[in-house]
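[step 3/7] fold_predict: job queued, chain A
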Amino acid sequence: QTEGWSIVNYTDAHITDGILTLNAAQTYCHIKYDVPAGNIDPSISKKAVIKLKNKTSDTKARFYWWGTNATAAYIEFTISANDDVYKEYTIDLGNDSRWSGNISIIRFDVPSPVYPVSIGHTVNIDYIRLTENSTSLPVSLMSFTATNHYNAVILNWSTASESNNSHFDVLRSEDGRIFQRLSSVPGKNKSNVITEYSFRDENPFPGTGYYQLNQVDLDGTVSSSEVITVNTGIEKPSSFSVFRNAAGTLKVSVSVPASGTGQLIIRDIAGRKCAEQEHYLLKGDNLLEMPVKLHSGVYIATMVNQKEQQSVKFILE
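[step 4/7] structure written:
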């Protein structure tokens, strides 16, 4: 938890809903944790994970530790700058020989150092945790975004590190509940640097599209990302049907992408106009009534509005 950390050279540091907000005041800002109950066992805690939103322009951070075998040892890692979203960073401690003995103090310089250009900007920290190798995620996903681009959807995501990463399955849904796999994108297997990925959906669903990533480990273990949405910019196709109810009244069901005036025209199979009526249509589904008496036969209904013209053939018996 972010509670219990000592704050150094940050001003207006406060915790709201579990989020630690730090305002850079001067250079060499950091947060420090004196282990209150004994020491950290480095044979168990092999990775440090921090999730933060860096609103400064600095890109360097450091994880320090003090213990029986090390004084002010640190690992420097890169973070992205001027962020609007939270990103998770994983520091691999298990491969550093200095991470040994009994660890009594750990410290984050996030970012380090804070140069004058960043003074007054904030860093928000969601959580900090130490984990075993076996429980840490094989992939540290930094970001996952979707944007509309000329009736296609561009998916971009990046990882801070990867371990035993086989591939990503790209999933898509029309309703946000039932997802289908679009494609697979190979992973890097092992990587300690930021890796960028991209996928282009050439035939997205109209309206709002839902996307998700399944990260698949080499042993088949699957980890799912958050679900993201994007307005694809493609209007849903209109539905249009005509029927006669038990009372003999002609009913017209039509769905349109935008509200506006529409002209409904009924013609027989020879093209003769049988009826014409103007309606104000609301965006979405509309049920209209046509006060016209038609004999049995084949007819064509045409709806003309500002967006489109659509026709449907119907039979009256």
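[step 5/7] annotate
Residues 169 and 184 are 4 Å apart (CA to CA).
The chain has a mean pLDDT of 82.
exit 0
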